[in-house]
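A common beginner's mistake is to predict each chain separately and then try to dock the pieces by hand. The better habit, illustrated here, is to supply every component at once so that their relative placement is modeled jointly.
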Amino acid sequence: MGKLFVIGLGPGKEEYLTIYAKSAIDEADVICGYTAYVELIAPLFPGKELFTTPMTRELERCRHALSEARQGRTVALVCSGDAGVYGMAAPVLELLPEYPGVEVRIVAGVTAALSGAALLGAPLGHDFCVISLSDLLTPWETIEKRLRCAAEGGFAIALYNPSSKRRSGHLRRACDVLLEALAPDTVCGLARRVGRAGEEARLLTLAELREAETDMFTTVFVGAPATRRVGGYMVTPRGYRTL
Amino acid sequence: MGKLFVIGLGPGKEEYLTIYAKSAIDEADVICGYTAYVELIAPLFPGKELFTTPMTRELERCRHALSEARQGRTVALVCSGDAGVYGMAAPVLELLPEYPGVEVRIVAGVTAALSGAALLGAPLGHDFCVISLSDLLTPWETIEKRLRCAAEGGFAIALYNPSSKRRSGHLRRACDVLLEALAPDTVCGLARRVGRAGEEARLLTLAELREAETDMFTTVFVGAPATRRVGGYMVTPRGYRTL
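With all components supplied together, the output reads:
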């Protein structure tokens, strides 16, 4: 019986791979994943069989990976960021009972909240929430409620999927919800294309964030009330300075 | 002028290091950090100068690292997990204006929420919060408020620092707060000593979690209302199965 590694690649550059992720892909016979990510890493692992599917074909990808493993092969199913955060680990484990005997290993990776934060400074230095603004699989009312709870709790917030070709205006609507509880000058940040060509980091206020252009390669950071600008960095202190 | 890398090591085993973290430590003249973590990785990087301080001496450690870099050396300040999540990135950036000219690079790593989740399955497959139960630097009332907001928002939750030698009963008190909003049979998980000798993962209910023993090497996961047990795994679905 084969083995399926579900692997988080980090933001997309070889140096952000963990050593574990690299050795798991090395061990695999076949690499499965979303077309864009497989194309990004395939040159690092020449000679592997590739199976790619476009976005929204996640279940097909998981089933193919499980079925190849069922036939005795070693499979690397790759995701950007972490395998568990909006990644393929959950759907693979949900389908696993249909593929008895397959051994699954989840290989954690650096999710966009962490890689984007490192570029901006330390926006997630204290308690934080991660919220996706995609309403493809989650009702918008649920997203709004989570934004309200996150602001009410004084969390720093990382927002995934602030916009896409099909969804525009979501970030503006999210900012309007956050502005009910947070000051317009709350320190915010944008991290774009981390670890790839065109990498960008930008600090701005929550009021400015409402007007900002983002795309599917952007992760948005909304500071807690304690978050400050220090030099060019966005920093959420834990409180060591007061010790 | 020197360079300071603030580096997340991941859970503590070489294979969870990113390639970037490994090459940054290789490049460094001196490794600074909490004694226990430096001892864990020092054998991998023979010949480096080491500077260690015990817990609660974080600012001293940061100042030493900055001051060595100011003198032209290349310094690796290492943290467990990620450099930015309850790590040294925030205090270093707060102190940086006192050490002009030092170049700082934050090197993200796999934080315990991600490495522990990978061991348990996919507990953080949808929106989630990360909350520390340490009230050393945060008033307990703030922690309670965040627990309430996280439960109210239907987030999955990763709890850091569930207990320590000085603090006991915090996890029980946190569970009591969560039980005001969440069902006693909410799926929960414990991940302990991930990537080290004695690694353990355990699924339990929120009612059972209230009675559980934890230590400073444990990360606690509290499921969202949608979180389920599938096989031996804790899974928070994103909703792909309903597409």
